[in-house]
DNA sequence: AAAAGTCATTTGTACTACAAATGATCCGTC
DNA sequence: GACGGATCATTTGTAGTACAAATGACTTTT
């Protein structure tokens, strides 16, 4: 959802539209949504399509529906905050500094922990993938190649944890963060700045040293985090 | 979903049924599901109800639907692993030791980080709530009261992080873990065993010492984690 | 044999009709 | 007049039909 293209599925479009309105605050928690028939008419879709969308929104914890009463927006605490769509809607809806800080904090928690876990659990092929990504970073001729290899590096580390939940969490957070800035991107002239840090991480994972891996990754993430902070401020200031 | 009672909503029942089948492996990733009409008939519901369920499963990343081709189960990597339902289905479907270990690892990552964050970000009222929970634990006369206060303590800490994503993540993981064992539960005779550890956590949060809070929480969690491990083994052995 | 067009199958959307639930209302009783 | 219960009206829940749209499979043409 939320990813370009003139949505082919009608109900997905409705999900997206209503999701944005709810997360964006147009429908406040506790507020009642219009009747299905009216809502369907206002969105120019059949009640069938609208209902399919409503069920999806219900599954994401955004709304609660009862007969006779209708649908009401649930309290934020019930939302599936880690759902990719919900996260995207929050990113789209005038993200507050606070929310971005939360995302950054999540990354600062997840990635070092993942590096440590990878150092403990990685197998040979997973290590090879990490090293390959590192070499690709070292060999990157331009910023695009660097960014691609960088992403592959992080993904390889996450895969090496052998923890699907951790992978899923990282994926969701990284995707959301990319809404605001390229992951660890830097100005073109010194885009290889963090290469030594990446080496430290991969080396610690190779040597199966969880603590060293965690620390190296922590340095890396807090470093790029402070940079993101700077960019965010600029962005928000400009907005 | 998955929570007792003869499901009132038909489509929710279908979601649950199909979700369990998919996550449980009856429908393997890559496999095609029967046509909507056939599937609806086999589950004794209308195509309308079935479709509402399919949309929900699609939103959870379990299936992918295209015209003419039908619906197929997506690869595990696309599943919303952090969705409460998906997690419950995994818990229900003969959980492997591996999966439980993943849940425990997540908790070991999240809770110490949360304690540190709470030490940084808590406000006065949030600290008061944590202290109140601690006092309730200290005053607990029986195991039930202890467990309730214990849960409140952890929830209070998570709330004090002021990070909704972190709260959401903890909630999902804690709920899933409770499928297997009471959070930090102990034998009746020494159920207050971990009270000093809880004091350390609350005190570090009071003093705004993130590192101390993280360490104290880490002790607590790894401690109860090893206990869980023991219980899990027993459980799996018994099964 | 390759390309283009046709067909058949399956999902997508719309619409209608009625069932079920439930808040609101009205009525009767005390 | 107040309370309790039956009735009503409204809104979602489910079923079923009909057709549109997409697309893989097949057939025809060159």
From TrEMBL, chains A, B:
Pfam families: FCD (PF07729), GntR (PF00392). Residues 8-76 form the HTH gntR-type domain. PROSITE patterns: HTH_GNTR. InterPro entries: GntR_C (IPR011711), TF_FadR/GntR_C (IPR008920), Tscrpt_reg_HTH_GntR (IPR000524), WH-like_DNA-bd_sf (IPR036388), WH_DNA-bd_sf (IPR036390). Keywords: DNA-binding, Transcription, Transcription regulation. GO terms for molecular function: DNA binding; DNA-binding transcription factor activity. The keyword DNA-binding applies. This is FadR family transcriptional regulator. It comes from Dyella tabacisoli.
């Amino acid at each position: 959802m939320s990813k370009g293209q003139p949505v082919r599925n009608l109900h997905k479009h409705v999900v997206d539209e209503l999701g944005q309105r709810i997360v964006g605050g147009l429908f406040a928690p506790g507020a009642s949504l219009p009747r299905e028939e009216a809502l369907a008419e206002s969105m120019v879709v059949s009640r069938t399509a609208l209902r399919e969308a409503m069920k999806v929104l219900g599954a994401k914890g955004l709304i609660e529906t009862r007969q006779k009463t209708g649908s009401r927006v649930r309290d934020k605490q019930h939302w599936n905050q880690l759902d990719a769509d919900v996260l995207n809607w929050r990113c789209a809806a005038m993200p507050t500094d606070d929310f971005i800080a939360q995302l950054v904090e999540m990354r600062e928690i997840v990635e070092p922990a993942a590096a440590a876990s990878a150092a403990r659990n990685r197998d040979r092929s997973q290590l090879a993938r990490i090293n390959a990504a590192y070499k690709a970073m070292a060999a990157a001729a331009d910023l695009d190649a660097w960014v691609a290899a960088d992403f592959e590096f992080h993904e390889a580390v996450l895969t090496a944890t052998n923890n699907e939940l951790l992978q899923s969490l990282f994926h969701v957070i990284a995707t959301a963060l990319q809404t605001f800035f390229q992951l660890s991107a830097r100005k073109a002239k010194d885009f290889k700045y963090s290469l030594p840090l990446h080496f430290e991480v991969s080396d610690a994972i190779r040597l199966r040293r969880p603590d060293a891996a965690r620390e190296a990754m922590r340095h890396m993430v807090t470093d790029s985090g402070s940079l993101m902070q700077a960019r965010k401020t600029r962005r928000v200031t400009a907005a």
